[in-house]
Amino acid sequence: MASQPMTIDQFPVRKKEGPPLTMVTAYDAPTARLLSRAGIDIALVGDSVAMVVQGLENTLPVTIDEMIYHTRMVRNGLDGPLLVADMPFLSYQISEEDGHRNAGRLIKEAGAQAVKIEGGAEIAGLVRRLGLSMIPVIGHIGMKPMGVHQMGGFRVQGRNAASRRQILNDAEALLEAGVCALLLEAIPASLGEEITRLSPVPTIGIGAGPHTNGQVLVFHDLVGWTPAPLPRFVRGFGKAGSVMEDALSQFRTAVQNRSFPAPEETYGEEQKASPRKTAKPKGKDE
Hints:
This protein is of the alpha/beta class and about 290 residues long.
């Protein structure tokens, strides 16, 4: 029997009763299938695709069209997790009209079920506007990667009184505007705990301590595909990078010593080609 798909209306229950929410990034259909089979709650198509997949230094170059493209790919492989897409740099900062239009594209064209937006009190009006259009919004406060130049790098936020107060003000403004969850990035654990206690909606942490209502990590980081050094808040739960490198080395050796392809991997006169399967994954309990 398939697991119940994650939906926004389950957030209040998970906030109150648990278990903590799990969120992992995905940028393509194969990763989406893995998240589905593993029972992950939320698939985030992050603008982190710029750094993780495109090999860039920060998230700023990603366009709305690229986010739509990757979100579509994830939608094709997803079965169960809630699909959330990031609003990329300059897709909403110029005007609320732009933000409304681009959030709608992620829902209508790409199949997202919610959008995530970096920002605090300054985006409260957009959050309200999207709510009127029935577009769920996850707010993203604390360390905001789009502000890498303003911050002078990817730096922990909320370590002094002024910064802490600003983050609390941002949280209050977004909660009043109607966000369905708050993502808290790179802030002291005590601040993550305080916001979680005050928030009526779930908090999802990434470098925000153990007291949030959920945790998120980048897929490539947690499976061991990203080269070191990694941020302090990352734990590697696998060794995918070394496994794939070993597979590639074995392939090279097999080709060079002519042990691949073997007779059973070669077509004769009568064998038919087998189609590549692309069906969506079954639920983890099926």
